[in-house]
Design a protein that fits this description.
Layout (H helix, E strand, L loop, with lengths): L7 H9 L1 H13 L3 H27 L7 E3 H8 L8 E4 L3 E8 L5 H4 L4 H29 L1 H4 L8 E8 L7 H13 L1
Parallel strand pairs: 3-4
Antiparallel strand pairs: 1-2, 2-3
């Protein structure tokens, strides 16, 4: 009747991370309720994005001027039809453009050697997100004052950041391959 936890971190990840979400989504799909499965997954993706934005806001801290602009503010500045990143963080000398990718590898990719399936996951989880970063960076280079309300004599440095949530394979091999593909595009 006792439980010995050897790794509290692993227990927390297994209880609150992507694995139980996979289980829940898979159960709904097996019952033929794809719409409900998509809603569960969408909710968890929004929670992950919100967590990143909350972290940026915590770093920015309170102050008289706005330093973190979410996708709603970015769309308002540059147009609703525009692809935009999830946030822009005004770090003073630089603008940090942040996009969150919650894409997880499909289960069939994890257990197989399917190059096509892996490339499809990379397309949706990385390359499309990089396009959103690039679109936002381009708009900021054209006229950052539309977002920040500040006209600068010298253009600020812009740093794009792709935040990849837990479960996506980030290692030296995938990072190198992704970097090469982004440079090629």
């Amino acid at each position: 009747g006792q439980l010995l936890v050897l790794s509290p971190r692993l227990l927390v990840e297994r209880t609150f991370g992507w694995l139980p979400i996979f289980d829940l989504v898979e159960a709904w799909r097996e019952r033929g309720e794809r719409r409900r499965a998509r809603r569960v997954l969408g909710f968890f993706e929004r929670v992950c994005e919100r967590q990143v934005l909350d972290g940026l806001n915590a770093i920015a801290g309170p102050g008289p001027t706005r330093r973190v602009y979410d996708d709603e503010a970015i769309r308002a500045a540059f147009g609703l039809a525009t692809k935009v990143a999830d946030a822009v963080f005004d770090a003073g000398e630089a603008l940090i453009v942040v996009e969150v990718s919650t894409r997880q590898l499909q289960r069939r990719v994890r257990g197989s050697d399917s190059q096509e399936d892996l490339e499809a996951d990379l397309e949706r989880g990385v390359y499309q997100k990089v396009e959103q970063l690039d679109a936002t960076v381009s708009r900021l280079r054209e006229d950052e004052s539309r977002l920040t309300g500040i006209r600068t004599a010298v253009p600020r440095r812009i740093v794009p950041v792709l935040v990849i949530t837990e479960g996506f394979p980030s290692n030296p091999m995938t990072t190198e391959a992704i970097g090469q593909e982004i440079a090629r595009r």
